[in-house]
Amino acid sequence: MCLLLSKDTCSRVATWRVRTIFGAMPAPVRVLLRLFLLALLTGLLFRGYLLLAHTAQWRDASTGHLLRAFVDRGLLFDAYVGAWLLVLPTLLLGLRHLLGSNARWPVVVARACFTLLFLVVLFLACADVPFYAYTNMRLTDMALSTAQTVQQSLKELVSTPPYLLALGAFAALAFMAVRLIKRAFAPCLAPAPTAPLARRALTFVGLVLLVGTGVRGTLDPRDAPLLPEDAYFSDTPFLNQLATNAPYNFVASMATEHVAYLPASEALANVRRYLHLGAPRYTSPIARAVTYPAPAARRNVVLILVESLSAQRLQRFGYPKRLMPFLEGLMDSSLVFDRFYSAGTRTCNGIFSTLYGLPAVGAQHPLAHPTMTAQRFHGLPGTLRAAGYRTSFLYPGDPRFDNMLGFLPANGFQQFVAQDAFPASIPRNSWGVTDHALYTRTLAHLDSLHHAGAAPFFATVMTISSHKGYNVPDDLPGFAPTSTADDEDIYEYADRALATFFAAARRAPWYANTVFVLLGDHGQRFDPLYEVPLAYHHVPLVVHAPGLAVPGTVHGWGTQADVPATVLGLLRQPHVDNTLGLDLLQRTHPLAYFCSDERLCALNDSSYWIRTGEVERLFDHTHRSTVNAAAQRTADLHALRTYTMSMVQAAQWLVDEKLLGPPVLKEVGP
Predict the structure, then answer these.
(1) For 398, what's the count of Cα atoms within 13 Å in the CB-facing half-sphere?
(2) Which segment of 149-158, 171-180, 484-493 scores lowest on mean pLDDT?
(3) What does the DSSP assignment read for 379-394?
(4) Separation of alpha carbons 127 and 53, rounded Å
(5) Cβ distance 428 to 422 under 8 Å?
(6) Residues 246/138, Cβ–Cβ less than 8 Å
(7) How would you classify the pairing of strands 288-290 and 575-577?
(8) What's the half-sphere exposure (Cβ side, CA atoms, 13 Å) at 39?
(9) Which of 255, 259, 418, 603 is placed for a possible disulfide with 399 were both Cys, Cβ 3.0 to 4.6 Å?
(10) φ and ψ at 335, to 5 degrees?
C-alpha cells in the first residue's frame, strides 16, 4: 500500500499504527514498557561512552565480537537490571489493575520507588566512568573504601575533575530522568474504562511472568540465573567488561567477599608444602620458629610505601623516560627485587600485606572488614615491637581513611602520626599534606626517637603525592617537572621529595644504622592490555642497607606478603613466623599471585592467569597475547590456580579461626 503513497504519508501511517497499538495496551503495560525502555537506553548510553572513551582497548577486536558485547550481552545485562527495577511497580500497578481500582496511592508509591532506584542506578553508572578510567574494571564496592568519612569523600569529590564531571553528568541526567519518569506514569493516573476481569487477570499474570523471567536473566527455567561470567566470551578483555554494566557489577561484588575456592584442609596442606614446613608445633598450622646462627643486627628499619609506584614508570623496567632518577640511582646501590608484585589494587591491601604477611583475601577490606577488626594481627610491627623496637606509622592524610587509625595502633604500632600532627600553615589537598612535608615530619620524628633512647625504631611511611590526579605541589625549592604528560609530573615530584629526604637523612646520626625498604603500595592502570593490567601490580621492592644487604638484583617471584619474613631475615631477628610469606633472600616463589578485587590472578615465566567468578583465562604474557590459552597450557593453568587458591583460602581460614595474632605463638606440643 505504501508504494502508492509518499514517503511522508507512509511515515505518518506507521506512526499512527504504533500509537494505536500502544494506546490499546492497558495502562500498566504502557507505563512499565516505557520504564523498561528508559532502563535499556540508559545502559546503551553509558556503554556507548565507555566504548568511545577506550578505543585503544578494542581496536583489534572483530566486528562480531564488538556487536555481541554491545548489543547481545549488553542488552541482556541491561534487561536484567531493568527487570529488577520494575519488580515493585509491576506488583503495585498490576494489582491495582487486577482489582479494577482507581486509587492514586499505588501509582504514587510505584513512581517514587522506581524514581529512587533509577537514580541510584544512574549514579552508579556515572560513578563507573571515572572508576573504570582509574582501575580498568567496572564499578565494584571497592569504591566504598574511600567513602568511610564524609569529609574525605567530599574533599576528594570537589578536588578531582573526573569526579566533578561525573557528578555534573549525574545531576543533568537525573533532572531529565525524573521528568521522563513522571510522564511515563501519566497513563495510570488518567481515567479509563474498566476491562473485564479475565482480561485484567491475564494482564497481571503476563506482567508478573515477564518481569520474573527478566530478574532471572534467562528464558530457560532450567538455566541458572544470570551470572557475572555470562559476560565473558571474547579474547579481547575489554569487550568482556563492556558487556556488563555498573549496577550489576557493583551489587555482584558485594556478595563475593568470603572466599571459598578449596576445602580448608586441602589448602592448608598445599600451603605447608609450598612453605616447606615441618611438623606443626603451634596453634596456627603455618607458624614456625625461625632462628639464625649469627646475632641479630639491631638496625633501625624505615619502610616507605610509595603511592602508586608502578615498575612501569621506571626506566629500569623499560619506560622510555627517566622520571625518577634518584630512585633509579638508589636502586643501583641497593638490593632490588625486580619480579615483585602488590597483593591488591588498594592502599589498604598494600599496607596490610606488607606489614602482616598475608595476601589480599578477595574483595575484603583488610583494615575495616568485621572479621579483621575483631582480632589482632602480629606480623612485622608486632614482631619488632616484641623485640624491643619502637614502632611508628606516618601518614599524610586523614587518619580515619581506610580505618588506619582504628586498625594499626591496635596491631603493633605505638605511635600514629597523621595530618592532624602537621601545622595548619602547611598546604594540603583532599588527600593530605605533600610528600615533602611528610618526609620533613618523618625526619623530625626519627631524630626524636634516636635521641630518646638506645632502642632501635621501626617506622612505616605511607606517601601520597604520586596518587593519580594529584596536582604537583610547589613546596620543593628549585623543582619544576620536565614533563607535562599525564601523571608523569607527579612521579618526578615524588622522586625529588624522596631525594631531599635521603639527602637530609644521610646527615642524621641514625642513618648508618638503618635499613631502608621502599616499595609501591600498588601500581597504576598503565598499559591496560589485560582485564587486570600487570602494571597495576608490578611494583619494585628496594632494600637499601649498606654493609648489610649486598647490592644486586633478585630475579625470583615475590609479593608484598614476603616483606615481613625478608626484613626479619635481613636483620637476623629470631621470631615465630606466622605469615604466608617467604624470606626472599633465601628462597622465592615459583610464581606471583594477587587479587584484583574479587578476581584472582597469578603469573609465572610464561603464563598469566585471571579468574573472574568461574571463568578462567590464561594468556601468554611474554608475547603480550590476549588469546585464551587455558586449553593448551593445562599444566600452567593447574599450577597457577592451585597455588593461588591455596594461599588465599588458607589466609581466609586463618582469619576465620582468629589464628593470626600473638596467641598463635604459643607452643602446643614438644
Answers:
(1) 18
(2) 149-158
(3) HHHHHHHHTT-EEEEE
(4) 15
(5) yes
(6) yes
(7) antiparallel
(8) 30
(9) 418
(10) -90, 120
Distance CA 438, CA 341 (A): 25
Q: What is the DSSP letter of 471?
A: P
Q: Cβ distance 411 to 377 under 8 Å?
A: yes
All structural domains of the chain with their residue ranges: 21-253, 264-665
Instruction: Say how far residue 604 (Cα) sits from the centre of its chain.
Output: 22
Question: Per the CATH hierarchy, to which homologous superfamily does domain 264-665 belong?
Answer: Alkaline Phosphatase, subunit A (3.40.720.10)
Average pLDDT over residues 186-195: 84
Three-state DSSP state, 558: strand
- HEC profile for 293-309? CCCCCCCEEEEEEECCC
CA–CA distance, 298 with 85 (Å, rounded to integer): 62
β-pairing, 335-341 vs 552-559, is parallel
Measure the CA–CA gap between 559 and 588, rounded to whole angstroms. Answer: 10
SS3 252: helix
pLDDT at 154: 63
Residue where the block lists cell 588469546: 627
Lowest mean pLDDT across 65-69, 193-197, 404-408: 193-197
| Residues 13-52 pLDDT 10s | 445 454 555 567 899 999 999 999 999 999 999 999 999 9
Distances (CA, A) of 279 to 269, 286, 378, 660: 12, 10, 22, 19
What beta strand segments (E) does 455-496 contain?
A: 457-462
Q: What is the dihedral of CA 520, 524, 527, 530, to 10 degrees?
A: 100
Between the two ends of the chain, the Cα-to-Cα distance in Å is 97
Give the sheet arrangement for strand 514-520, strand by strand.
415-417, 390-394, 457-462, 300-306, 514-520, 541-544, 335-341, 552-559
Closest CA to 459 of 406, 402, 510: 510
Q: How far apart are CA 380 and CA 92, in angstroms?
A: 58
pLDDT for the residue numbered 14:
45
- Kindly indicate the confidence band of residue 192, based on its pLDDT and cuts at 50, 70 and 90: confident
Whole-structure pTM over 0.90, yes or no? no
Of the pLDDT bands very low, low, confident and very high (cuts 50, 70, 90), residue 112 is: very high
Residues 6+ apart with CB under 8 A from 200: 26, 97, 98, 100, 194
Residue 668 has pLDDT above 50, yes or no: no
Separation of alpha carbons 40 and 30, rounded Å: 15
pLDDT digits (tens, 9 = 90+) for 433-467: 999 999 999 999 999 999 998 899 999 999 999 88
Give the pLDDT confidence of 83-100 residue by residue, as tens digits: 999 999 999 999 999 999
Angle between helices 27-53 and 87-98 (to 10 degrees): 170
Q: How many residues does the chain have?
A: 670
DSSP class per residue in 155-203:
HHHHH-HHHHHHHHHHHHHHHHHHHHHHHHTHHHHS--PPPPHHHHHHH
The answer to whether the beta carbons of residues 535 and 525 sit under 8 Å apart is yes
DSSP letter string over 399-456? TTGGGHHHHSTTTT-SEEE-GGGS-TTS-EETTEE-HHHHHHHHHHHHHHHHHH-SS-
Question: What residue spans of 524-576 are helical by DSSP H?
Answer: 563-571
The count of other CB atoms within 10 Å of the CB of residue 406 is: 15
Higher pLDDT residue, 534 or 364?
Answer: 534
